[in-house]
Amino acid sequence: AEDVTRLAIGGMTCASCVSRVERVLQKVPGVTAASVNLAGETATVRHLALTGMPEKLAEAVRSAGYEARIAT
Ligand code: 9UX
């Protein structure tokens, strides 16, 4: 089954940040689609329902140098 995780992201200041964050999210195994909204400072990620995915996605964003928390 597919799940959707929404992340609140801090530290994105230009359109290149958006591309970078989308790319790191799409690279996480199990992710099928990732879309970042710069103005809203959010990411919407579709992915397989694997254990721990929300935290893995947030960690991937942090590793790229941005702040991330799981939005509810
Ligand atoms: Mo733009 Mo984002 O010059 O980390 S890529 S600020």
List the SSEs and their pairings.
Layout: E1 2-10, H1 15-27, E2 31-37, E3 42-48, H2 53-63, E4 67-70
Antiparallel strand pairs: 1-3, 1-4, 2-3
Bound molecules: dioxo(di-mu-sulfide)dimolybdenum.
Dioxo(di-mu-sulfide)dimolybdenum (9UX) is lined by residues 13-14, 16-17.
Domain HMA: 3-69
Family: Belongs to the cation transport ATPase (P-type) (TC 3.A.3) family. Type IB subfamily.
Organism: Pararhodobacter aggregans
Q: How much of the sequence is in beta strands? A: 35-45%
Number of domains: 1
Number of helices: 2
Structural class of the helices, strands and pairings? alpha+beta
Q: Roughly what is the average pLDDT, rounded to an integer?
A: 97
CATH topology, by name, is: Alpha-Beta Plaits
> SSE order, as H and E?
EHEEHE
Bound molecules: dioxo(di-mu-sulfide)dimolybdenum
CATH architecture assignment: 2-Layer Sandwich
How far do the termini sit from each other? 19 Å
What is the level 1 CATH name? Alpha Beta
Q: Radius of gyration in whole Å, from Cα?
A: 11 Å
Low-confidence blocks of residues: none
Helix content: 25-40%
Main β-sheet: number of strands, strand sense, barrel status?
Answer: 4 strands, antiparallel
Number of strands: 4
Shape: globular
Family: Belongs to the cation transport ATPase (P-type) (TC 3.A.3) family. Type IB subfamily.
Subcellular location: Cell membrane
Organism: Pararhodobacter aggregans
Protein name: P-type Cu(+) transporter
